[in-house]
Specification:
This protein is α/β, with parallel strands linked by helices and 377 residues long. The protein folds into two domains: 182 residues, 3-Layer(aba) Sandwich (Rossmann fold); 187 residues, no CATH class. It contains 19 helices and ten strands. The protein has a six-stranded parallel β-sheet, sandwiched between helices. A two-stranded antiparallel ribbon has the order 4-5. The longest helix has 17 residues. The radius of gyration is 25 Å and the shape is elongated.
Length: 377
């Protein structure tokens, strides 16, 4: 499964539990680090909260006390990163009381017993302590922590890496695996990452990162996880590109931040790409010059043209001759350009484009399916 489909899949499995009436299946999500497994679990929890007509809340102990006062109001998301916890955090703390040993429950288990939510057991394949795995087994198998049984509308999701993706990842006990729906997820493509950025951050990220990743898509710069289990060197993942592009939008463009997010090797190539000098006004006025510039400059010009159209849409018709030249050079350039235009503006621009040359409809109807259907209607 590609990672962009994970959020909907989790939501669909949860909703099916309501219809089936036989409890909630637990899901184990396996894939490379930094591709958005935890993010999608949290996003699915937000959609489930809407579906349940409850207020979504990220769990912490302060929020836990708040939720217990109005348990019918909330739906929580709790991230239990197993490698950061002790077994007692799942099973409770033994205390003597009236000549008996009782397990004193933690606050989160009290919340989980009274309020529906999603519990994320993160980094489960990196956990090697047998007593911790035994505690996790109880959470998944019995849907219980210590002696606190979870609310019936609780879903449990575990995330981890496959052994071939991380030298510290290990296989799980077969009885534990048998209690999960095991979902193997693959990283998002460059275009899917771009869609994620627009969906979550609008235009508040640096499109030049997308131009670079698209230009060198075959090099796989979007994700390069180190093979060693431990390192002090940064490396590129979907997560680190997201962080970098966001910082660049807000003016943090120094080399240290680039290298600190994606590492020196890829960072140096990204910096070199950023040095490409493109005068977009000159290209609009003299479209044939597009043929003379380097491939790097053509990708850079594509995203710069998107920015120009967003800022000067009333003069967007002036870009049509340049669009023709870009299209004749490679459909890739105009796709990168069009992908950088917000959907509402893109529809207007494509209508303008079709009046200019109706043949472009067939060229882009498969890429922009939703907009093409609206235009055709």
């Amino acid at each position: 499964m590609k990672i962009p489909k994970l959020e909907k899949y989790i939501f669909d499995v949860y909703r099916a539990g309501d219809e089936m009436g036989n409890g909630r299946s637990s899901i184990l999500v396996l894939g490379l680090p930094g591709i958005g497994k935890s993010w999608n679990a949290m996003s699915a929890a937000k959609k489930i909260a809407e579906y349940k007509k409850r207020e979504f809340i990220l769990y912490d102990d302060v929020a836990g006390l708040k939720m217990l006062k109005e348990p019918d109001k909330y739906f929580y998301f709790l991230d239990l990163r197993l490698t950061h916890h002790a077994p007692e955090d799942l099973s409770g703390i033994p205390r003597e009381r009236e000549n008996f040993i009782m397990y004193l429950p933690l606050l989160w288990t009290e919340v989980a017993s009274k309020i529906p939510g999603v519990i994320l057991l993160d980094e489960i394949t990196n956990e090697r302590r047998e007593n911790m795995l035994a505690a996790a087994y109880g959470v998944v198998y019995d849907r219980i922590a210590g002696f606190k049984r979870f609310h019936p509308d609780t879903m449990i999701i575990a995330c981890g890496n496959r052994p071939e993706e991380s030298s510290i990842a290990s296989e799980l006990p077969s009885p534990l695996i048998n209690r999960f729906i095991v979902v193997n997820v693959e990283p998002a493509s460059v275009d899917e990452w771009r869609d994620f950025m627009y969906r979550n951050y609008g235009e508040k990220w640096d499109m030049k990162t997308y131009a670079f990743l698209k230009r060198f898509e075959s090099e796989g710069f979007i994700i390069q996880v180190p093979k060693t289990p431990e390192t002090l060197k940064a490396y590129p993942t979907h997560r680190s590109w997201t962080v970098l592009s966001r910082y660049r939008y807000y003016g943090i463009t120094d080399s240290e931040t680039i290298y600190g997010c994606i590492g020196e090797e890829v960072g140096a190539k990204f910096e070199a790409f950023l040095q490409v000098n493109v005068d977009i006004e000159e290209l609009i006025n003299n479209p044939l010059k597009f043929k003379e510039i380097s491939t790097d400059a053509k990708y850079m010009a594509s995203v710069m043209l998107s920015s120009w159209v967003r800022q000067h849409f009333k003069k967007a018709s002036e870009t049509l001759p340049l669009f023709d030249v870009m299209f004749n050079e490679s459909r890739e350039y105009v796709t990168v350009f069009l992908m950088g235009i917000p959907k509402n503006t893109l529809k207007e621009y494509m209508l303008m484009l079709l009046k200019h040359n109706n043949g472009y409809f067939d060229a882009f109807k498969e890429v922009f399916i939703d907009i093409a259907q609206e235009i055709k209607a």
